[in-house]
Specification:
The protein is of the alpha+beta class and 296 residues long. The chain has 8 helices and 13 strands. The two termini are 32 Å apart.
């Protein structure tokens, strides 16, 4: 993966439209986005989005990261933040530039990392737009949240319990909140390693520490895979470890904003599919509590 260097940008402040500024901010928040993803986020035509993105690359606000693709319809350019974009974000937010978490080397990562982040972002976009259509909202999204607790690891038998989900998100469904961990599988993880991950989630659930950390009684783990066959295989692995209704499975193709209220999720241990957003589910939706901020 190589970043396409932009020509030197003028030091004179460019006339950035509100839409362009929002796109720069989104690219920073998501780290990597394709033009179709930007088009979906901002309800724009893909071609129009490509033109805006190209202008932002030419002006030094974004970097275009080329990737090899097999299908002609797959975008071969992924967009990431560039120096001038980071400066703009600091200026617009009125914060010290050092607080903008971006450095040029963040764009130079391997193709598997980029492809995985794009898949995670597909899920994030679907949930963000889908919950908005239901008058809900994603209150918090944190990528690769590190969890480390003074709890026995189920395999080692001693602390600490350590795992890192692809994301943690909290959905506001007034007057309730839904807590979710996200695992996006690319078909490369062994069944044995995935089983270890499930055992750690179960140990975390049984420890009751989650309630102290996040202010919720429990959580769901969303497992999204590339195909129905792969998803079913991971569900069987989960069930073999004793995982039940906490774990929700769906192929990536079904996780869309348009299907947000449809029963596309297969719960471990259940024979029928369910909707992710049920207004009254005592297991995972809880009355609002004061927001807590704990180091995890």
């Amino acid at each position: 993966m190589t970043a396409v260097e932009s020509p030197p940008a003028s030091h004179q402040a460019a006339n950035i439209s509100p839409l362009a500024a929002q796109i720069i901010r989104a690219v920073h928040d998501y780290r990597f986005l394709t033009s179709p993803q930007v088009a979906e986020l901002f309800s724009r035509d893909t071609r129009a989005s490509e033109l805006i993105l190209k202008r932002l690359v030419d002006a030094g606000y974004l970097a275009g990261v080329r990737r090899p693709v097999l299908a002609a319809e797959t975008p071969d350019t992924v967009y990431a933040l560039a120096q001038r974009g980071a400066d703009l974000i600091a200026s617009r937010l009125g914060i010290d530039r050092r607080l903008v978490r971006w450095r040029k080397y963040h764009n130079y990562v391997g193709l598997p990392f980029v492809e995985h982040r794009l898949a995670v972002n597909d899920v994030r976009i679907a949930l963000t737009l889908g919950t908005q259509s239901l008058a809900y909202g994603i209150e918090e999204w944190r990528y690769e949240l590190p969890v480390r607790e003074d709890v026995d690891d189920p395999d080692e038998g001693v602390p600490p319990l350590v795992f890192r989900p692809d994301a943690y998100l909290r959905c506001l469904m007034a007057p309730r909140r839904l807590h979710l961990f996200l695992e996006v599988d690319m078909g490369t993880e062994t069944h044995g390693r995935f089983a270890t991950k499930i055992r750690r989630y179960l140990a975390y659930k049984d420890s009751s520490i989650f309630r102290h950390r996040f202010g919720g009684r429990s959580f769901r783990v969303l497992v999204v895979g590339p195909t129905v066959t792969r998803v079913n295989a991971l569900r069987r692995v989960t069930e073999a470890q004793g995982g039940q209704r906490v774990f929700w499975f769906a192929p990536l193709v079904d996780v869309t904003a348009e299907k947000i209220a449809e029963p596309v999720w297969q719960l471990a241990g259940e024979s029928t599919k369910a909707r992710l957003f049920e207004p009254e589910n005592p297991q995972t939706c809880f009355p609002l509590a004061p927001r807590q901020h704990h180091a995890v």
